[in-house]
Structure formats: structure tokens, C-alpha cells
Design a protein that fits this description.
Strand order of the largest sheet of chain B: 2-1-3-4-5
Number of helices of chain B: 14
Number of strands of chain B: 5
Structural class of chain A: alpha/beta
Radius of gyration of chain A: 23 Å
Bound molecules: adenosine-5'-diphosphate, magnesium ion
Structural class of chain B: alpha/beta
Order of helices and strands of chain A: EEEHEEHEHHHEHEHEEHEHEEHEHEE
CATH architecture of the largest domain in chain A: 3-Layer(aba) Sandwich
Oligomer: heterodimer
Number of domains of chain B: 2
Largest sheet of chain B: 5 strands, mixed
Strand order of the largest sheet of chain A: 6-7-8-3-9-10
Distance between the termini of chain B: 30 Å
Largest interface: A-B, 28 and 24 residues
């Protein structure tokens, strides 16, 4: 493997009252989908904007496509696409016009066909002549992605691309992002959605308070920090909980479900047999693999919902 | 160059699609012209105060002063006949004053009897001021009338000096239109650019632009070129309405075109320079209002600077808009391109400073 597409070493950004990033190190290889995952205020946007040449780091090194972004971002800007956090397109331009305009800012004049292709890549063909202000939230983000792609970039930064969208629109965007990756584009995606990172990323860095607290593929992280699988006695309720606990099994109630953790995979069959023999009314029994949600909980000690930590 | 054109086209498209912006740029100045034209055009309200020292103090000299008061463009105030004319002007910071010498009536009487005589009226004042030109026109017009009626067209009453070839029969619209153009040169780009800076910052367009090849000077140049085109459209409409509705005589001279270009560059740049302090739409509007509104009034957009108290007149010298208003009046109304050239150069000076401050000072990135 050659030089990494992104190479960050001991990077810090300190403000008067806060260490927005506090000595992070990571690298992203060509063609990889890398995700910075963390709650609001973790330092994701700060990291991304340093890599986009928009902020100067306090210390450390940040290299993108082989250049030091502090001094050399101008050399690589045509090869990088950017979708900023909370992207909103220009209200009074149609997607077609916005894409043509943005390309010209990179000294590229797109043919009508190239514009059509790009618009259709992001699934806006039906909306190509609608003023951006009248697009839905998901369509606006897709237009933003189309604009970020005008220079056929090797690397794309997507800062919370699905935040604030409804589940349907999020899934559609996931499809588009996967397609980008398939075409060989290296992607740095930030998100506070655990499922998003789990679904999309090859490699995840969990960030909290400016630090990377864990790093690896979703599967690796789950294996290492997920504390095994879970057995759910759906609808067993408090009676169920008492019955389970009477057999000396540790369990907890989540809603009306009784949840039993099975940290070691080889214990699974034995535990299932034990639970099956309990005679208590319930809807169903099923097992659940650990997810990044469990990883996050065990690493940070709190759950994360809509980017906010809850204890 | 292509980037500038592309940015200008995209910006212009958005601008014209936003009806509010277009209204303020194109329709609002016309409404002002119609409004002010209706108010001042019909009532004959006079903008220039002409100080008169009537040394002759005779029936004829009183008639002359009365006639001046009846023109639509001047009202007179007396300087005591005992005062030293030049000293009084200096002491009271008077912009333009007329002296009717003793022997005025005698000369007229002789002329009526067929004797060839002349009498010289002295018109003193700052010739670079638009009010001076207005006064010259008025005094000239009255003198011509006297010569016609009293002396049967023999040139008895002679106005000295008459170095300004002022247009005769000026109406209020001729004095007013350059001011409205000046107002538009200030308001359209200044209010527009501060609003744009606010929007571009709060919606992070600046950051997005910073990741493209478009530079700040290019972005600013695109805005300047667009506003110049817009201003020309606006001026064309204003002149058309002026001619059709009020019989406008003032003309858009080549010098006026240059001043409009320089002025638009100046205020587009100032708007972007102010964008340094703009964080959101509210601060944007507040800053533009705080700077724009006082300047509109103090720089003589709606009434000549000379009608204001002396200390405000001094203050007006520091306002960039003053030179635009003054230059446009000089060239459009009085065909005085020498004065207008000075105003053009001052405007270009301000413009260069604002452009550099804007291109250097405004940061697209964050700290
Ligand atoms: N310009 C700034 N001045 C002061 N603090 C900042 C600035 N930018 C970001 N921060 C702080 O740095 C921390 C990280 O912010 P950010 O990178 O935006 O987090 P994220 O994108 O993960 O939500 C936050 O606490 C934020 O308040
Ligand atoms: Mg963020």
C-alpha cells in the first residue's frame, strides 16, 4: 500500500476554554470508507475542517493526498470534495444550475450530459429544474453531494450527511454513499448515528471529548468491546425478570423485555437452554448480536441518542 | 476570468429571482423620484440658500431679489449692507453669495433712456459646489429677464464671474436625480453585500467557497460587475422616468458613467469590508443601516450639502458618498466635468482602499 490518503498525527486544536481535539492520530487508506463517530462536540467537524484547510491546528500534523493541508491545500482542492455539516444549497438555483456553477469554480465546464449524469447519480433527475429552496431535506443533501463531486474527487468529506433527515431519506443517502465507495472514492464520513457507522464504514474511530477512544472495523470493535451477545425475552415483564433472577441469572428490564447479556459466545447454547426452561408468559425469545451501540456504551459509559449523551 | 463570470451569472440569477432585492434596486429609486418630484416639483420649494448683500438698496435691487426668490431653485437671505462682503462670507461659511453694487438702479434707469451702461453683480462662492452652479443659473436667468424687460435686451446687468456654464431653466428633478442615483449607488450594493455576507457566513457558503478555486478578490469582482450592470439598468429607468414625467434636462455624461462605475466598486467593496464584522442577518442589517442611512442624508442625496449647518458640511467632506453626489450633479446637471473629475478621483481612491480592505480583511475560514 502506498501513502495513506489521510495521515493525521498527534493533531490538536485548542480554543481558549476547550480542547476541541486533543492529540488524535489516524490514517485512511485509498478506497476506504472511514468514519469519525461521536456525540455532538466530540471534535468531528473541527477535525474535518482542519483536513479541508479551513482551520489551522494548534499542533500536530495533517496530511491529505500527500500534502500538508496547513500550507498545501490549494494544490489538492480539485481532488477533494466537501459536504459541510448542515449543508444548505443556494436557495434560488436549480440543481442543474448549481452543479454547472460549482464545476466552473473548479475550472471545469461540464457538458449537458455530464451534468445530467451527475444529477442522476444522486437521484435528482426529476427535481433538476426545481429551485433548491423547494427541495426536501434529503434532496438538498443529495444536491450537496452532487456539488462535492463536480471535480471527480479522489477523496470526499461528508460531515454528518444524514443528520436531521427522516429514516427513509437516510437510507437513500446510504445507498448513494455506498455507490460512491464502490467507484473507488475514499470517503471520510462523520456521524453521531451508531447504525450509520456500523452500516457504512470499513473503519471507525470513536471520538469523545476531542480524543479517539477506540479504532477498528465495526466487527473488530464489537468483538473487542461489545461484551458478547444478548438474549431478549420479549414481553416477559417484571414477573419474567423475577423468575430469571430466581435462577441466579443476571438480567435487566428494558421496557417490557427482559435482557440477558452473554459475554462469551460459547456460553450461548447453555444460557438459552436455561432460559427456555423457565415457565413464564412471553411473546418470543430471540438473540441479538452486540452492536456499536453496546461498544459505545461500554467505552463512554453512556448511551448516545441524536448525538446527545444520556446516562 | 471564467470563474468570475460563472460566479457573477449564478449570483445574478439568484438576485433577480429574489423579488425583494430587485424591487429595492430597480423600483424603489423610481418611487423616490416620483415622490420627491411630486412634492418639490409642484410646490417650487427651493434647495439653495443664496445670500444677498444689497448695497444699492433701491426699488430695482429689491425687484431683482424678489425675482430670485421666485425662481424655483433659490431663496435669498440678506447680508447687512454695512458688512464687509468677503469677510462676512468667510465668517459665516456661506457657500454662495451675491452682491448688488450701489448704482444698480441708476444704471438701469440710464439704460432705459437708451444710454449704454453695464453694472456688474458679484457672485462669490465655492465653484466646486453644486449650489454655486444652481445660484449662477438662477442669477443669470433673472439678469437675462431684467435685460430683456428693463433694458430691451441690452446687456445691462452683467453677472460676474460666470465661469460655470450652468444649464438654464433647471427644475428640481435636475438637481434631485443625481442625488437619487447616488443614493442607489450606496444602498443597492451596501445593503446587498452586508446581507450576502451574513447569509454566506451563517449558511457556511464562505467555507464552501474557500474549498474551490475561486479567490476572494474574484468573488468580490463578480459582485462588483453584477452591481454595475444592475446600477446601469436602474439609472436608465430613472432617467427615463425623469424625462417622461418631469421633463428632465440633466444628461448621463461619460463622466457620470465613470462615477457610477467607481461608486459601485466603492460601495460593493465597503459592504464586503463591513462583512468582516457581520455574523448573522441581524448584525448585517444593523451595520448597513448605521453606516448607510446617516451617509445618505449627510452626503446630500436628498438636499444639497450647502443647506446644512457648517459643521455638518465639514463632516460631509469625509463621507465617500458626498463625492459621488457632488460629481454626478456637477457633470449631469452643470456640465462641469472639471469638478466631477476631482470627485471621480476621490471616489476611486476610497474604492481602492475598500476593495483591498475587503479582499484582505474578510476571512472565509474560521479560527
Ligand atoms: N471556533 C471555536 N471557538 C471555540 N470553541 C469551538 C470552536 N469551534 C468548535 N469549538 C468547540 O470545540 C468542540 C468540538 O466541536 P466540533 O468539532 O464542532 O464537534 P462535533 O463536530 O463533533 O459536533 C465543541 O465543544 C465546540 O464547542
Ligand atoms: Mg460537527
Amino acid at each position: 500500500m502506498g501513502e495513506p490518503v489521510i495521515d493525521v498525527r498527534d493533531l490538536s486544536k485548542h480554543y481558549a476554554d476547550i480542547k476541541a481535539i486533543d492529540g488524535i492520530t489516524f490514517n485512511v487508506e485509498k478506497g476506504e470508507m472511514f468514519s469519525l463517530l461521536g456525540p455532538n462536540g466530540a471534535g468531528k467537524t473541527t477535525t474535518v475542517e482542519i483536513l479541508e484547510g479551513l482551520r489551522d491546528p494548534t499542533s500536530g500534523e495533517a496530511r491529505v493526498l500527500g500534502v500538508d493541508v496547513r500550507t498545501g491545500y490549494r494544490k489538492i482542492r480539485e481532488r477533494v470534495g466537501v459536504l459541510p455539516q448542515d449543508f444548505e444549497p443556494f436557495d434560488r438555483l436549480q440543481p442543474r444550475e448549481a452543479v454547472a456553477y460549482w464545476a466552473q469554480l473548479f475550472d471545469r465546464t461540464l457538458t449537458k450530459k455530464e451534468i445530467d449524469d451527475l444529477i442522476s447519480t444522486v437521484g435528482l433527475s426529476d427535481r433538476a429544474e426545481t429551485l433548491a429552496m423547494n427541495l426536501s431535506g434529503g434532496e438538498k443533501r443529495r444536491l450537496g453531494i452532487a456539488m462535492s463531486l463536480v471535480g471527480r474527487p479522489q477523496l470526499v468529506f461528508l460531515d454528518e450527511p444524514t443528520t436531521g433527515l427522516d429514516p427513509g431519506a437516510r437510507r437513500e443517502l446510504w445507498g448513494l454513499i455506498r455507490q460512491l465507495k464502490k467507484e473507488g472514492t475514499t470517503i471520510l464520513l462523520t456521524t453521531h448515528y451508531l447504525d450509520e457507522a456500523e452500516q457504512l464504514a470499513d473503519d471507525v474511530a470513536i471520538m469523545n471529548h476531542g480524543k479517539i477512544v477506540a479504532r477498528g472495523s465495526p466487527a473488530e470493535l464489537i468483538a473487542q468491546y461489545g461484551r458478547g451477545s444478548t438474549i431478549v425475552l420479549a414481553g416477559a415483564g417484571e414477573d419474567g425478570l423475577r423468575a430469571v433472577q430466581a435462577r441466579g441469572i443476571t438480567a435487566e428490564l428494558q421496557g417490557v423485555d427482559v435482557v440477558v447479556k452473554v459475554p462469551v459466545a460459547s456460553d450461548m447454547r447453555r444460557m438459552l437452554e436455561k432460559l427456555a426452561s423457565i415457565d413464564t408468559p412471553l411473546n418470543e425469545i430471540y438473540t441479538r448480536r452486540a452492536s456499536l451501540e453496546d461498544v459505545f456504551l461500554s467505552l463512554v459509559g453512556a448511551r448516545m441518542q441524536e448525538g446527545v449523551l444520556a446516562t | 476570468m471564467n470563474r468570475i463570470l460563472a460566479d457573477m451569472k449564478a449570483f445574478g440569477t439568484q438576485y433577480l429571482r429574489s423579488r425583494v432585492g430587485t424591487f429595492f434596486a430597480l423600483v424603489f429609486p423610481i418611487l423616490l423620484i416620483l415622490l420627491f418630484g411630486a412634492i418639490f416639483g409642484s410646490s417650487g420649494s427651493s434647495p439653495v440658500t443664496l445670500y444677498v448683500q444689497d448695497v444699492d438698496n433701491s426699488a430695482a435691487s429689491h425687484a431683482f431679489t424678489d425675482a430670485l426668490n421666485k425662481t424655483n431653485v433659490t431663496t435669498t437671505r440678506a447680508i447687512p449692507s454695512s458688512a464687509d462682503f468677503s469677510q462676512y462670507i468667510r465668517d459665516h461659511s456661506i457657500n454662495v453669495a451675491l452682491q448688488i453694487p450701489s448704482g444698480f438702479q441708476v444704471a438701469l434707469a440710464k439704460a432705459q433712456n437708451g444710454t449704454r451702461v453695464t453694472v456688474n453683480l458679484t457672485l462669490a462662492g465655492d465653484q466646486t459646489q453644486s449650489s454655486y452652479g444652481i445660484a449662477v443659473s438662477a442669477v443669470d436667468a433673472v439678469a437675462t429677464a431684467f435685460n430683456l424687460q428693463v433694458a430691451k435686451a441690452a446687456p445691462v446687468v452683467n453677472v460676474l464671474p460666470t465661469s460655470v456654464p450652468g444649464l438654464r431653466h433647471l427644475t428640481y428633478i435636475d438637481l434631485f436625480l443625481p442625488g437619487i442615483i447616488g443614493f442607489t449607488i450606496l444602498s443597492t450594493p451596501l445593503f446587498g453585500m452586508t446581507a450576502i455576507c451574513a447569509e454566506y457566513r451563517s449558511r457556511r457558503y464562505f467555507k464552501l467557497l474557500a474549498t474551490t478555486k475561486l479567490s476572494k478578490p474574484e468573488w468580490l469582482a463578480a459582485k462588483v460587475v453584477f452591481h454595475i450592470i444592475l446600477l446601469f439598468a436602474s439609472v436608465a429607468l430613472m432617467v427615463l422616468v425623469g424625462i417622461l414625467v418631469f421633463g428632465l434636462k440633466a444628461v448621463v455624461t461619460p463622466m457620470a458613467v465613470l462615477i457610477i462605475i467607481a461608486g459601485t466598486l466603492e460601495f460593493t467593496s465597503l459592504g464586503m469590508a463591513l462583512g468582516i464584522f457581520v455574523r448573522d442577518p441581524e448584525t448585517g442589517a444593523a451595520i448597513a443601516n448605521a453606516i448607510g442611512f446617516p451617509m445618505m442624508f449627510l452626503a446630500g442625496s436628498f438636499f444639497p450639502v450647502d443647506a446644512m449647518p457648517a459643521f455638518l458640511q465639514t463632516g460631509a467632506r469625509f463621507l465617500p458618498l458626498t463625492y459621488i453626489n457632488e460629481g454626478l450633479r456637477a457633470t449631469m446637471t452643470f456640465a462641469n466635468d472639471a469638478t466631477a473629475l476631482v470627485d471621480l478621483l476621490v471616489t476611486l481612491g476610497f474604492a481602492a482602499v475598500f476593495f483591498v480592505v475587503a479582499a484582505r480583511g474578510l476571512s472565509w475560514k474560521s479560527k
